[in-house]
């Protein structure tokens, strides 16, 4: 694999990732994914509990990926998505 290969992969939305031992590389498709992170100490705060209830999220989690939550378009202006 050359530097040119890495650059071409990046231009086309791909990336090379090393395996656990660092001896081989795998070409992967980069997929943007939304993540909602809540500070662990805030998970049980009243405001967070209300947010969880309104958006029908699973209570007690401190991190959710885009596939676990959908924020209505009109609510996106209220939070940093």
Task: Describe the structure concisely for a colleague.
This protein is an alpha+beta fold and 81 residues long.
Gap between N and C termini = 36 Å
Continuous helix count: 2
Spell out the helices and strands N to C. HEEEHE
Shape: elongated
- The percent of residues in helical segments reads 10-25%
Q: What's the Cα radius of gyration?
A: 18 Å
Instruction: Give the tally of β-strands.
Output: 4
Strand order of the largest sheet: 1-2
Give unreliable regions as ranges. none
Strand content is 15-25%
Class by alpha and beta content: alpha+beta
Count of individual domains: 2
Outline the biggest β-sheet. Answer: 2 strands, antiparallel
Whole-number mean pLDDT: 79
List the SSEs and their pairings.
Blueprint: H1 3-11, E1 14-18, E2 25-29, E3 35-37, H2 46-54, E4 63-65
Describe the structure.
- The chain is of the alpha+beta class and 81 residues long.
- The chain has two domains: 31 residues, no CATH class; 41 residues, no CATH class.
- The protein is 22% helix and 20% strand.
- The chain is built from two helices and four strands, in the order H-E-E-E-H-E.
- A two-stranded antiparallel ribbon has the order 1-2. A two-stranded antiparallel sheet has the order 3-4.
- Strand 1 and strand 2 form a beta hairpin.
- The longest helix has 9 residues.
- It is elongated, with a radius of gyration of 18 Å.
- The two termini are 36 Å apart.
- The mean pLDDT is 79.
């Amino acid at each position: 694999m050359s530097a040119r290969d890495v650059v071409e992969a990046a231009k086309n939305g791909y990336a090379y990732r090393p395996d656990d031992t660092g001896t081989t590389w795998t070409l992967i498709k980069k997929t943007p994914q939304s993540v909602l992170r809540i500070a662990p100490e805030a998970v049980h705060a009243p405001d967070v509990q209300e947010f969880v209830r309104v958006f029908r999220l699973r209570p007690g989690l401190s991190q959710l990926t885009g596939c676990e939550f959908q924020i209505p378009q009109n609510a996106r202006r209220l939070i940093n998505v």
